[in-house]
Write a structure and sequence with these properties.
α1 packs antiparallel against α6, α1 runs parallel beside α7 and α4 runs antiparallel to α6. The chain contains 18 helices and no strands. The protein is 81% helix and 0% strand. The protein has one domain: MFS general substrate transporter like domains (Growth Hormone, Chain: A, Up-down Bundle), CATH 1.20.1250.20.
Length: 437
């Protein structure tokens, strides 16, 4: 296949940026297989262990809108370069941390750097590729980033056993910090001839940009799509999947690492498939999301309702494979943000959408840790069964709010079409749509 010089340049820039996102996902999920070792290293119980993830993901969520504003103001290249430096510093600090407070500080620094990656990469996609290819490249980005999650499962577990905590995290941290040089040299914010001059903006203008993005029904729908779809597989991969599989399901640590790899493989293969479908048939985006949410509720009903408590391995594999599609499905939220916002506001809108999933992860991870501590006198099977009901509650909330904003976004599209304006997706009115304004 022949590519134009501009397309080749765009692909190289995207590839360089995707590697730092892969590193971000690796660092974000590295505590998953290291969680049991972390409890002994820092002397932690379930609630304190959960605080690591809650803090890191909470920082991530809080940084999303500021990151979007920074990307729109200063450009993705600068933001990505700083992100790599911060992630490297955070992981180096975590490698040598010997106390719980220092470990928390390290994960917070790591969370800030992590927070600045995905929005920046998607802003580069929006700047270098046609709008019709945005959804596909967003899905490809998520799928390739999931390789970082794959590396943080069985390979990281083997590395931790072989060379130990300090060497493992120190080497990965140093490599990430050094990669900042590659980002600074190879990434460009815009295609040649498309440079945008950025003028300083007042705080009032900046806050107005956030309000405009939030008030857009397509952005709000994207927020709830991301909230609903990505949190369950991410929560399992980030923290609670490994203890659940080992302590509640009785798997060995290598087997649990392999089971978590199912989440990653599903995301890797599901991402391109979903990206291709929604690029060709954008009207299928939200129906796909709703279908996933209903399926996820059914999976959790089986996992938590299994009579003996010990779910057969084959059922676990199928359940985790189905849940893994939440990551690819969450990229639909970013496609909605891209379609319903002007290019100058895409970074901000993407940040708003990205907040959703990480708010859900923070809340569910914290709830599970607190509930496990509260049910500590029960068997691990019973304690996890009760604690993971919080995941079902978050899924139900997300399904409800997604349904509400789906109807409102559709109503906004119909109103815009009636005014003779261009609309991102051609849709037909259904009996369940809101009445015309």
């Amino acid at each position: 296949m022949q590519y134009s010089r501009q397309t080749r340049r765009a692909l190289i820039i995207w590839a360089v940026a995707v590697l730092v996102y892969l590193a971000a996902v690796f660092h974000r999920t590295s505590l998953g297989v290291a969680s049991i070792e972390a409890t002994s290293r820092f002397g932690l119980g379930p609630a304190a262990l959960g605080t690591f993830t809650v803090l890191q993901v909470g920082v991530y969520a809080l940084m999303q809108i500021p990151t979007g504003l920074l990307v729109d103001r200063y450009g993705a290249r600068r933001v990505l370069t700083v992100a790599a430096l911060l992630m490297g510093l955070g992981q180096l600090l975590f490698a040598f941390a010997s106390s719980y407070p220092l470990g928390l500080l390290a994960r917070a620094v790591l969370g800030v750097g992590d927070a600045m990656t995905f929005v920046s990469v998607l802003r580069l996609v929006a700047a270098h590729f046609p709008a019709r290819r945005y959804a596909a490249f967003a899905s490809f980005t998520a799928a390739l980033g999931a390789l970082g999650n794959l590396i943080s499962t069985l390979p990281l577990s083997v590395l931790l056993d072989g060379v130990g905590w300090t060497t493992t995290f120190a080497v990965t941290g140093a490599a990430t910090a050094l990669y900042a040089v590659v980002l600074a040299l190879r990434v460009r914010d815009h295609a040649p001839g498309m440079e945008v001059r950025r003028e300083p903006e007042s705080l009032r203008v900046v806050l107005g940009q956030v309000r405009q993005a939030w008030r857009t029904p397509g952005t709000r729908l994207g927020f709830w799509v991301h909230f609903s779809t990505m949190f369950a597989p991410a929560m399992l991969g980030l923290l609670w999947g490994f203890p659940y599989l080992v302590q509640a399901q009785g798997l060995s640590e290598p087997a649990a690492g392999s089971m978590l790899a199912v989440l990653v493989l599903g995301a890797i293969f599901g991402g391109p498939a979903i990206g291709t479908v929604i690029s060709r048939w954008p009207e299928c985006r939200t129906p796909l999301v709703v279908s996933y949410l209903v399926t996820a509720l059914a999976v959790w009903a089986v996992l938590l309702g299994w009579p003996s408590g010990r779910v057969p391995a084959a059922i676990l594999v199928v359940g985790f494979a189905l849940l893994s599609l939440g990551g690819p499905a969450s990229t639909i939220g970013f496609a909605l943000a891209r379609d319903y916002n002007p290019l100058r506001r895409v970074g901000t809108a993407t940040g708003v959408v990205n907040v959703g999933g990480f708010v859900a992860i923070t809340g569910s991870a914290l709830a599970i840790g607190l509930l496990l501590s509260a049910f500590g006198s029960f068997t691990p099977q019973t304690a996890f069964r009760l604690a993971l009901l919080s995941v079902v509650a978050v899924l139900l909330l997300g399904l409800w709010r997604t349904s509400v904003w789906w109807r409102r976004a559709r109503a906004a599209v119909f109103d815009a079409a009636a005014r003779g304006e261009d609309v991102p997706v051609q849709i037909r009115r259904r009996a369940w749509d809101l009445a015309p304004a």
